[in-house]
Every structure is written in C-alpha cells, then in structure tokens.
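Thread: quick sanity check before group meeting

JM: Hey all, I'm pulling together slides for Thursday and realized we never actually wrote out the predicted structure for the chain we discussed last week. Dropping the sequence here so it's in one place. If anyone has concerns about the input, flag it before I start.
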Amino acid sequence: MSTATASGPGETRSKLALGALALGALAIGTAELVIVGVLGLIADDLDVSLRTAGLLVTAYALGISIGGPVVTAATIKVQRHTLLCAALVVFVLGNLAAVFARSSRRTWPGIRLLRS
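JM (edit): ok, ran it. Output follows.
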C-alpha cells in the first residue's frame, strides 16, 4: 500500500495562506515589541525620562486589552479574510505615516501627555 499523496492546488494554496499569515504575524509582533528595545532612544529624542517613555508600552498594552474585545465585538460579522486584509492595510498606513512624519508630534498627537 502506498502512502504517498499528490499535492493538489488546494494544498499549495493553503501553504501559501499559512505563510502569509505567519509573515503578517511576524511583522505585527515585531512592531509591537521593538519599542522596548529602543525605549532609551525614544526617551532621549523626546527629552523625557525613561520611566515616562515607558508609558508608551503601558498605553499600547491598555489599548490592546481594551480595544481588542471592542473591535472583536464590532467586527464579529465581517469575514476573517476581509478583516485581516483591512487590519494589515491600517497597519501599513500607520507605519507609513510614522516614516514620513516630519516630527514625532504628527506621528502621535498624545505625545504632549508624556511631557506634562
């Protein structure tokens, strides 16, 4: 009895989809955690203490923990594929806005909270 199976177009497509999801998770996960490594540079650039700059991590965690369930409830009827694509588009646009911003104040309007 032979155990070899031929891989059809459905299996190849599934592997591509899994690879795309893995790449998206890596990109988003890296963006979430990279701030901890550069927190000292951010504190120096914004002329605030390291402790105050650490509030960025806290604010992000609060935003995810509060916003996650709210967004999940609001998008419960949206197809997962559409939602994932929309989330990645928002992610890319946000990063592009940060790259092309001429100052940190345009990137994050709440930066004034750190200085007070």
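AS: nice. The CA atoms of residues 41 and 50 lie 9 Å apart. DSSP finds seven helices and no strands in the chain.
JM: adding both to the slides.
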